Amino acid sequence: MTEPLTVLVIGSGGREHALCLALHRDPGVADVHCAPGNPGTATVAINHSIDQLDGAAVAALARTLAADLVVVGPEAPLVAGVADAVRAAGIACFGPSREAAALEGSKQFAKDVMAAAGVPTAASHYCATLAEVADALDALGAPYVVKQDGLAAGKGVIVTEDREAALAHAEACLPVIVEEYLDGPEVSLFAITDGVDSLPLQPAQDFKRVGDGDTGPNTGGMGAYTPLPWAPAGLVEAIMTQVVTPTVAEMARRGTPFQGLLYAGLALTSKGLRVVEFNARFGDPETQAVLAQLETGLGGVLYAAATGTLANIGELAWLPGAAVIVVMAADGYPGTLMTGGHIAGPRLFGTDDNVAIFHAGTAVDADGQLIAAGGRVLGVVAQAADLTQARVDAYAAVDALDFPTGFCRRDIALRAATGEIPTPSL
Ligand code: AMP
Ligand code: GLY
Q1: Number of other residues whose CB lies within 10 A of the CB of residue 420
Q2: Considering only the top CATH level, what class is 5-94?
């Protein structure tokens, strides 16, 4: 494609705001639309009110806009088959089919694919009853890991030494997977794939627990940084060879090729790398930092993946330095939320410096005031010469915000910046 692209992004979170900004900055992209979008996406795209789970409505909107490419951001529309509806309408779509999105939608399906593809992952037991859970907990031992089988926005997992708490979590969300505990630092690697060829993005690390020092319950992610100064040499190549390439090949072999973003969540354990989970879309909040580092125009890469021509795209180019994202969440997250709180401050509606504030859960109230309207409300991203400077810039931008009903972690990327994470062996 040589004509500049018209792109429609589906979703309404910080990831979609970051995608819209990266597309908006790509000279190969003429117009960016977002549906439903949010007050942040409205600064870099044209928002359209739509039910993002309605594939026919998304396809109709794409046709009306004469979109060259639809990019489906979140997991829910993918699992609902929105990408299938768009492709059936003859429009290029970045995002896996409903069947392929089961890599994220069902943890048990992902385990089956990994077993068939020889991909290293934690030992696990699928349990439909509490009696099976009890047996599996005893077979694998503490610490206990219990995961809801279906989609849970990152909150369906408990990792605990407390057998009773593990059983109680299982009871609340049967059927579950009981899994071997994986030690070692976690890595998020995103690969863009057309179903045959795959291109890695820069690896990132996200922070799942709500509190400083990795305390408190799991969340969708409280922050992230990229790249990883402590990564062992050859990490990305190892993940591509051991995880991404065999998984993409196994999905094609099954007749359900995976085309879009394959997100491998990994633990670098003392026994080698292990897949913790797959996601079928860009990770949030990691994407907000990863795209801040990307120099190659995003639109052409996503279009190539959507049209089976990724082999024509060379390696991606990255800015020197590092990026950090700090999530501002509404008080109470990930529990009962304090929404409706006012948000004010610089850079909420665009900036031309190295800091961007992405809207993840905001709305504009009747008085035109920006308010919190979700759990994760803002993503504050800084791109700088190194992690230390990126942290300084990101937290300075956080401190410049007037958002009394919000909070953030203060230790995002801290241990990486101070060199406290030992380099694991591969
Ligand atoms: P998941 O929904 O599978 O991504 O799990 C969410 C988070 O729970 C992961 O990012 C890990 O921090 C933690 N976790 C999941 N599985 C394991 C495991 N087998 N061992 C240790 N921690 C885990
Ligand atoms: N950051 C974790 C996720 O996107 O699922």
Answers
A1: 9
A2: alpha beta
